[in-house]
Amino acid sequence: MTVESFAAALEKVVRRQRPSAAQMREAEFEFHHVIKPAWNLAAGHPGIQLCVHPSPPRAKCSGGCQVAAGHRHRRRGCPDCWRDSKAWSIVRAYGLSHTFDLVAHDARKRSMAVEVKWLSYKGGRSPNGEFQRFVGQCTLAAARHTAVLGICCIRGQRAKTLTIDEKALEQRMEKTLNDKLGRIGVRLVVLGTGVR
Questions:
Q1: What pLDDT, on the 0 to 100 scale, is given for residue 61?
Q2: In terms of Cα–Cα distance, which of 104, 110, 4, 108 is closest to 48?
Q3: Which of 52, 55, 107, 168 could potentially form a cystine with 47 if both were Cys, beta carbons 3.0 to 4.6 Å apart?
């Protein structure tokens, strides 16, 4: 499996999910709705080497990371794999280093990055600035990675109800944005909880 087809398969899995508004933390959303599905998907595709940031219990790959290239012996969140992934996954631009929430590469060393955000409407205010930063992070990832998946969940909803015409315009704009970002290898998945 190529990293591009892995990214497409992960996008399909993530799009089917409906996160709960009861989740309050980005780490919880990231783990349950992105990392676990990605890890399970990678288990069926040993040519994909997936790396995610360390989390408890911080177990290391059986026999070392290079020996554990087959998914069966790898450990999700292995601190050594995460550290070693920096050599091929960090985007260095404008004197800054940019990292991402999940990275993977295939047997040809073509890579993908996944950026995850959990945003909320607060006090009637929409998270416009945070969303713009999220899109910017995804665009930066495209400088190095063949495929980029930006996964964002927006908790709550705007106070204003959209008319049918406004909803149609919004859908066309989302398609246009994804088409344009798709030209540089970026796909956005924006989910919503729909509850305030």
A1: 78
A2: 104
A3: 107
CA 9 to chain CA centroid, Å, is 13
Q: Which helix (H) or strand (E) holds 190?
A: strand 186-192
Alpha-carbon gap, residue 78 to 66, rounded angstroms: 12
Q: How many CA atoms lie within 13 A of 93 on its CB side?
A: 13
Q: Is 156 helix (H, G, I), strand (E, B) or coil?
A: coil
Residue 183: per-residue pLDDT: 86
For residue 149, which amino acid is it? Answer: L
What's the token pair of residue 96? 């800054």
Does pLDDT of 48 surpass 80? yes
Angle between helices 164-182 and 128-141 (to 10 degrees): 20
Summarised one tens digit per residue, pLDDT across range 59-70 is: 887 766 765 455
Is the pLDDT at 194 greater than 60, yes or no? no
Structure tokens at 134: 């999220």
Q: Could you give the residue ranges of the DSSP H alpha helices within 59-163?
A: 79-89, 128-141
Q: Is 114 left (phi over 0), alpha (psi -120 to 50) or beta?
A: beta
Q: What share of the chain is helix, strand, coil (3-state, %, to 5)?
A: 40, 20, 35
In terms of average pLDDT, the best of 63-67, 110-114, 155-159 is: 110-114
Give SS3 for 60: coil
